[in-house]
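Budget justification, computational time. The allocation requested in the original proposal was used primarily to generate structure tokens for proteins on the priority list. As evidence of use, we reproduce two of the resulting records. The first is shown immediately below.
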Amino acid sequence: MQATPGDSYPEEEWEVWYVDTFDRDFPPRREVGGRGLVHGLVELWARHMFESVLPDGKRGFSSFHLKWKQGRVMIDGDLEGAQRLREWLFGEKETTYSSAVEEADPLLLKKLATAHARLIERQEKAERLLAIALKAEDKADCSSKLDEEIRNLRAEQYASQSRSQGPF
């Protein structure tokens, strides 16, 4: 995945780690790594939604987190919102033949990652995105609300930067 203009932290290195929450003796394992926060968040969201949230809305025995220079990023929040996102990202799939990223709805996945990166810039968490999914009427409404969230977060960032630079 290539960075798009305006991506947050396009050069930052990251790793996504897997933790087996059933077998505590199984050591954490690095799943994937790369460069660009949004790309890392795409990987994190796909894995989390496919393996940590089951189709019936229960939690799976897999946990994932992203490590990068500013610490650790996890996806926490409303499980019902997560279940809806899982359905919109993967439909009824319970197994993958390639990777969760390749099997997910690419547009919705990118929007989640982009919005999450903007929230991270503000030291906020992903639970806000799960709340959006919970309130959405359907997948199209969720996608639209994520677009609006991204626009608002970008506008707030721009306004904040403009204020900090002061008058010319």
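The second record produced under the same allocation is shown here.
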Amino acid sequence: MKISIIALGFIILSCGNNKMEHSGISESKIPGNDSEGISIQNGQDQQVNTVLSHTEFEKLTVEVDTNNPFWKKYKEFANPNSNVISFPGNKPLSDFISDNGIKNYDRKFEKPPLVESAFVPYSRTFKSEKWTAVGYTIIYRDEDSSLGCESELTVHNSDGEMCFNLKGIEININEIVVTDDGKYVCFSYGIDDEYGALLNEGYRIYDIGSKKIIAEEKFSGQYYNVHPGSMHNNIKIGMLKDGPNSFYVIYDFRNSTRYKYEYLPGPDKQLVKITEGGFVFKANGIFDTLLFKNIAVKETF
């Protein structure tokens, strides 16, 4: 999934051949979304105003809009009637984003870019019985294109305690997932506009305790619709590749192993479930399981 900005202050939501711009995902888009085997979080409503824990609604209330750190930071320049922040004069992008952050973008600039305004998309959220996560992003722009972005990510437990907060993330946040044990948080990213990709789609995984990046992968244009999900205490990344092919990355943290698997969906091979141990396929009415340990493409991390 990639956030697409076609005009300043608007998000275009569409499913195309090379990107998806919606913060949620239809269950039919990623095969194998079965609640008994894998939890793919669909509830990342762009216009959510309040995130509540499932276990005790009264205990945890995160006011997403009013607590947005970027609205607070640039309050004097914000337009109360839109998602746009207008800065007086032009400021170098380097005033907002580090040199390393700028180098990470896939759009290269012929001369140092100047920031005229910023776009603040609706916040991204994740909710489970144990964890609530909120991701905030601001996208810096010149007159008509995206130049860079910055994000902040927080995770609360069901008692309302903040157990993770990271500022100054110089990529955007699309979809978020937290493992059941609360040890890892993962999010997808990607931005494009009418001039192409500022940031190709990818994902990043943090260790919640240390706040360190333990895994990241950014894809070329042949991969799109990147969606993270949680399987018990593991993480699954699902995406599409080269049109009809489905591609999965599974992180098995207990065994420190990453599995990669690609297949072509069809009537003779339908993925009906992803369990903690492997992929469950159905062909001609017969179920068959491909165990992760038998997948050829795997590596330790």
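A brief technical remark on that second record: The two ends are 25 Å apart (CA to CA).
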